[in-house]
């Protein structure tokens, strides 16, 4: 069985004080998460805080976005080398909130993916369909297009050691988790897509993962862990979600 990975996506939440409380409580519980890798993707201003609090722990950290350019006159943007400067391990690219609210196309997301790789960090490529796309039977085609943008630009080898997060847009922040059958179907399709090459990214599920649902979702054969939004904001809750991955490992 592949190692489980659970990534918290704090989105635009946090303050230095609240983060410190979270870190103190979370770090007190991480020893019980043997065999599971945990990472926190936080807003840019808090990367330094993560680096100093987590450097001597088993928890990794990362960012939620990156600029598609390496450096230059791009006011307000943050480049991949800057994220690497704070020892980020992971960078989310193509989260649906970026695609929908900030108009990021799959081609742009692929350029961002390339920057993350070039700076020797691990991209977490978010893919997923809207409700309308699911209802019109386009789920797998949409995901295929989102993955293909990266393979077109960089080749299938760019997925070696990378992470793909399947996040149905209709399940994000809605309290509506995809069913076990829906998740397994898409994860298997993603896995099959790479079966002909030696490349095999880890595939996470995201979308309203909670303490109650984590164990069952993470135990699915093609689910390597989760990308967790709301339930990663409170230490006890996120520890509970991570424990779901420990249980899934034991059951496997
Ligand atoms: P959620 O967010 O767990 O709050 O649904 C997941 C995500 O957007 O990564």
Summarize the entry for a quick read.
The chain has 252 residues and is an alpha/beta fold. It is built from 10 helices and 8 strands.
Structure notes:
The structure is a single chain. The protein has 252 residues and is α/β, with parallel strands linked by helices. It is 42% helix and 16% strand. The protein contains ten helices and eight strands. It has an eight-stranded parallel β-barrel with strand order 1-2-3-4-5-6-7-8, surrounded by six helices. Helix 1 packs parallel to helix 10 and helix 5 (106-118) crosses helix 7 (139-154). The longest helix is centred in the last third of the chain and has 17 residues, at 235-251. The protein is globular, with a radius of gyration of 17 Å. 42% of the residues are buried. 2-phosphoglycolic acid binds at residues 9, 167, 172-173, 206-209, 227-231.
Key structural traits:
252 residues; alpha/beta; 10 helices; 42% helix
Radius of gyration: 17 Å
Bound molecules: 2-phosphoglycolic acid
Structural class: alpha/beta
Assign a percent range to the helix content: 40-55%
- The N- and C-terminal alpha carbons lie at a distance of 7 Å
Low-confidence stretches: none
Major beta-sheet overview: 8 strands, parallel, barrel
What's the pLDDT, averaged over the residues? Answer: 96
- SS element count, helices: 10
Q: Strand content of the residues, in percent?
A: 15-25%
Strand order within the widest sheet?
1-2-3-4-5-6-7-8
H/E series, N to C? Answer: EHEHEHEHHEHHEHEHEH
Task: Please state the overall shape, judged from the principal axes of the Cα atoms.
Answer: globular
- Can you count the beta strands? 8
């Amino acid at each position: 069985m592949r190692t489980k990975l659970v990534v918290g996506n704090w989105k635009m939440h946090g303050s230095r004080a609240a983060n410190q409380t979270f870190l103190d409580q979370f770090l007190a519980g991480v020893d019980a998460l043997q065999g599971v890798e945990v990472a926190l993707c936080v807003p840019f201003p808090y990367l330094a805080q993560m680096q100093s609090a987590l450097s001597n722990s088993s928890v990794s950290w990362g960012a939620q976005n990156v600029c598609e350019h390496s450096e230059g006159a791009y006011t307000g943007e943050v480049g991949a080398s800057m994220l690497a400067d704070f020892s980020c391990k992971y960078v989310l690219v193509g989260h649906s909130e970026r695609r929908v609210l900030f108009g990021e196309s799959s081609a742009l997301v692929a350029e961002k993916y390339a920057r993350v790789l070039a700076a020797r960090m691990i991209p977490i490529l978010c893919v997923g369909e809207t409700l309308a796309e699911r209802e019109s039977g386009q789920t797998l085609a949409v995901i295929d297009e989102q993955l293909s943008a990266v393979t077109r630009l960089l080749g299938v080898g760019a997925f070696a050691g990378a992470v793909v997060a399947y996040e149905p847009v209709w399940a994000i922040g809605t309290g509506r988790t995809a069913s076990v059958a829906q998740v397994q179907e898409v994860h298997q399709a993603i896995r099959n897509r790479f079966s002909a090459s030696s490349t095999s990214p880890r595939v996470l599920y995201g979308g309203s993962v909670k303490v109650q649902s984590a164990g069952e979702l993470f135990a699915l054969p093609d689910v390597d862990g989760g990308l967790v939004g709301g339930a990663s904001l409170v230490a006890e809750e996120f520890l509970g979600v991570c424990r779901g991955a420990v249980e899934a490992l034991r059951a496997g």
